[in-house]
Amino acid sequence: MVKRALVLQHVPFEGPAAIGEVCREVGLEVEVRRLDLGDAVPEAVSPEELLVVMGGPMGIGDIGSPEFPFLEREVELVRRCLTDEAPILGVCLGAQLIAHVASAPVQPMKAPDGARVFELGWAPVKLHKVGPGDPILGGLEGELSVFHWHGDHFALPSGARLLASTEVCPAQGFLLGARAVGLQFHIEVGLSEIETVMEADRSFLVRARGERGPEAIREETKLHEAPSLGGRQRLLRNIVEFLARG
């Protein structure tokens, strides 16, 4: 039985946010490892732990870089979790690490003409339910507005179940094996987290959406954050309870 969530955080502006809140609500202790501050990546997780791997501006191409020495150790930890069928939730970079370990390509998103494509801001994902009793997508409609912040994407790992997709990013979420969930999008963020990431990662935002990017995303947030809150909370709670059941 899972009793604790072990969160691996890579940068100051991408913490667990609502993931930590929901974990505590269902009775889990939460420990955050700040890898960017030198906290150690564990060699393994215990049978009582849920591993949560958060996002960050680094990518799969940075594995082996001296700037991010923790990435190689995370790859080994994720590999061990998949082998042992230990519960793991990967968000954005975390999902890409799971896909990478499962031998699925992780690459920059590109248009047919080769131009770079980004998803930053609010956009709906299509949810691929298997029925009303779906343990992860149960209680949700067929579409959910979520917050995106990425320019890379992964192919669906072999044998994985597709959970969510968008037109430009066909694999937005997956369930791999019995206990590994990867989400490219962010259901953990709220108003304060969105403002923080826009300030901290402004150069990426301007590259993807131009100088007016911050104002455009604030306008989108006013339209989509509150109406989608219930669905995002339901999805997050479904995932945590599913992974914590053992």
What's the arrangement of secondary structure elements?
Elements: E1 4-9, H1 18-25, E2 29-34, E3 49-53, H2 70-84, E4 88-91, H3 93-101, E5 106-108, E6 119-127, E7 143-150, E8 152-154, E9 161-165, E10 173-176, E11 180-183, H4 191-200, H5 202-209, H6 213-244
Parallel strand pairs: 1-2, 1-3, 3-4, 4-11
Antiparallel strand pairs: 5-8, 6-7, 6-9, 9-10, 10-11
Helix pairs in contact: 1-6, 2-3
Salient structural properties:
alpha/beta, nine-stranded mixed sheet, 246 residues, Rossmann fold, single chain, two-stranded antiparallel ribbon, 11 strands
Structure description:
A nine-stranded mixed beta sheet has the order 2-1-3-4-11-10-9-6-7, with helices on both faces. The protein has a single domain (4-244), classed as Rossmann fold (3-Layer(aba) Sandwich), CATH 3.40.50. α1 packs parallel to α6 and α2 (70-84) packs across α3 (93-101). The model has no long low-confidence stretch (mean pLDDT 97). The chain is built from six helices and eleven strands. The protein is an alpha/beta fold and 246 residues long. The protein is globular and about 45 Å long. The chain starts with a strand and ends with a helix. It has helices spanning 18-25, 70-84, 93-101, 191-200, 202-209, 213-244; strands at 4-9, 29-34, 49-53, 88-91, 106-108, 119-127, 143-150, 152-154, 161-165, 173-176, 180-183.
